[in-house]
Amino acid sequence: MSSSIVQYILLRSDLLKDLGWSIGALVAQACHASTAVLHVYRDDENTINYLGDLDNMHKVVLEVLNEESLKKVAEKLKENSIDHKLWIEQPENIPTCLALKPYPKEEVKKYVGKFKLYKAMLTS
User: Fold this and answer.
1) Which of 8, 31, 71, 115 has the most neighbouring CB atoms within 10 Å?
2) What is d(CA 27, CA 123) in angstroms, rounded to the nearest whole number?
């Protein structure tokens, strides 16, 4: 059943590209947001089903350009009663990432469909 349920994570691309955060720091932000929203909504039926089939969890990490874009998405989700967690990194107090609780894709695609998959350009 969890295969039809997706967890979307929206991560700021400017943290890497403009502000010099490491890939590891970005991964940590996504992990924080995902873990937090799963905990907050642990009694939700979609979350229970999603976590009931751990080997088939489906997450999609999408790119938002900056803090302003992330806050706009969070506000739109809130206005439409879409459960999510805006992760604010402490002690810096910087919004970095947003994770939706697991939802059937069809229920939330209109809120996340305009965002591209997150692609980090690595240089060595």
Assistant:
1) 8
2) 17
